[in-house]
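thoughts on my protein:
***
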Amino acid sequence: MSEPIRLSKRLIELVGCSRREAELFIEGGWVTVDGVVVDEPQFKVDSQKVALDPDAKAEQPEPVTILLHQLPGQSVEQALASIGAESLSEEHRFSKRPLKGHFLRLSCAGELQAGGSGLQVFTQDWKIVRKLTADAAKIEQEYVVEVSGQMSEHGLNRLNHGATFKGKVLPAVKASWQNETRLRLVMKNPAPGLIAQLCACVGLTIVSMRRIRIGGVSLGKVPAGEWRYLATKEKF
């Protein structure tokens, strides 16, 4: 019986490609072992059937951007650790096949307000990172905030035209009631703690808050703790 060899070496034997091409084919998810996609060039094979997709391209995989529905109380590190093939939203599994390389070198772009949950962006794409940092002052963020307490008189108007908190002038935001206990707040590049200050200045206490949109990108129907890929046509 022959010794197991690296998948990349077996692929070279099969199709006569270079070592680098073999690695790119495998890392791109174009190679199957007994019908199952394997994206690790170092994976060991012996008598299994190795096949290369007829449409395979020996190209560096495109960087991905992951939209996570972050859980309340999670740190960025905990949120990042929760991302894997098993936590991809069932409804969004048709869009792209998850590969191990998709979960490497992810950067958080645009952190949530402290205590917030909802849309969190992790990306391999430096252009997305630059967009969400350099253009942060131009990009809207939308939060749904569950509150308790009685809003002070003309409170909504104050939020929409600029309120004060402990002598500090707060930026005007787009504020409206979603229902009796939920505020919808839209703002650009909110400073840390801004939502808590906005609520406090009109007599409200935050119960929970969830970010649902950044620019033109909404979280969509992604269950808490799960994620989806940013679609090609979506733009922040």
